[in-house]
Amino acid sequence: MLNATTNFDALLQNDTENLQSKYKTLVALYARFAPSILIVDRSITPFWYFLGLFGNLLSAYVWMHPRVRRKNSSAVYLAALSVWDLIFLALHPFQEVREAWMGISENSLLDCGLLHIPLLTAQYMSPVLVLCFTVERWIAIWFPFKRDSLCTPKRACIVTVVMICIVFFYNLIQLKFRRYDYELSVCIVNTQAVEWTVYTSISEIIFSGFVPISALVFNLLVAIELYRITVGNKHMMPNGDGGDASAERKFRSTTLMLLCVSFFVIVTSLPAGLLYALQNQNYGNVTLTDSEVEQDSTWQSYFSATLTKKIVDELSISHYSLNFVIYLLTGPQYRMYAHQLLSSIFGGCCRLIRGRVGQPKEQLKQREDYYFNNSRTNRAKRLSERNSTMSGTHATAVGRGSAELDGATTGTGGDTNALSPLIVKSTV
């Protein structure tokens, strides 16, 4: 299979003119016959980098905030998702520069394995984490009485660590097929081995097929059950506080946000897997001249298929960058903490842009306290404190009444005039 770093020296063994002498790499070939491929690759990807680095840093701060992750297992998955998306966007430019700009192969020991393995791990962790929190939300909706025991932050941390270990050690298999040649200073990948074909096929089936499709199935189950509960006016949402309206709205809002994120990752991941299964390796006759290549239908079909693949690849990268947009649109709590962070960084500029000049900082603190005080734990605590206060007030009132009665009978306190007729009568 040709890729952006394929060297034509290996491919054009029987070629004696033109293509071999003019176009050593596919980047040079695309620049001559299909420049739109390079335009798509070079213009869109940096845009995803810019948005993703900003959005994932913001998301990691919000989801790791102590008040957000407290009693919120979904925040653990979303924080891990932001971190791994950030790692992917930080490592991907090294590969992008080689393939889209320089047209060279992996020519260092770092590229050959030490950089490639973490990049693949970050790439695969995104759909895996989406599947994890989708399954958790399915448990919360379909088995509400098991939510408190199964959907906890501690269990979410354990699941996340286990998934990271599985994906990382699975990617270590790549080292079996990669070898760095110190004499040639190039990374050699044994792509002709049958095991390599089996390994790459299984990887695409699992991470671009099975994982997104499984997440889609659980998403549909959650959406159907949530719709049934809403339409049927069954307000027994699994929030642990009965029909508390505020907790119910918060639960549904979080569920909607997670569904949107999950559907977005599925929509952007599945096409890449389908395209891999349907890809065509007909590259055309490499002995043709430039004018013949322009008229050759096989080469033109190859260029069109490559352009389609580049567009799909850019679509697939988008979900590593744009999750924070969904959080902003569907998560009120996320918006509040994001605004708080941006306000603290940019000072009055953020409030000026949002038309909030002169807004006291105490309002932000009050909004933060509102979400915090409406959590289940603190509602129970406030109820307990209120009962204790009421009990104390009742005891004080009883004590005061007893003191007044004692004062009336002894003539040393209380309203003796009001009780004196009764005392005289009882004495007589």
From TrEMBL:
> SUPFAM superfamilies per the record?
Family A G protein-coupled receptor-like
Q: What is its main location?
A: membrane
**Key word tRNA-binding present in the record?**
no
Q: Cite the residue spans of the region called Disordered.
A: 381-413
Q: Which GO terms describe its molecular function?
A: G protein-coupled receptor activity
**Segments crossing the lipid bilayer:** 47-64, 76-94, 114-135, 156-173, 205-227, 256-278
Highest taxon in the source lineage: Eukaryota
What GO terms fall under cellular component here?
A: membrane
Ranges where the G-protein coupled receptors family 1 profile domain occurs: 55-327
Q: Which UniProt keywords apply?
A: Membrane, Transmembrane, Transmembrane helix
Compartment(s): Membrane
* Name used for this protein in its record: G-protein coupled receptors family 1 profile domain-containing protein
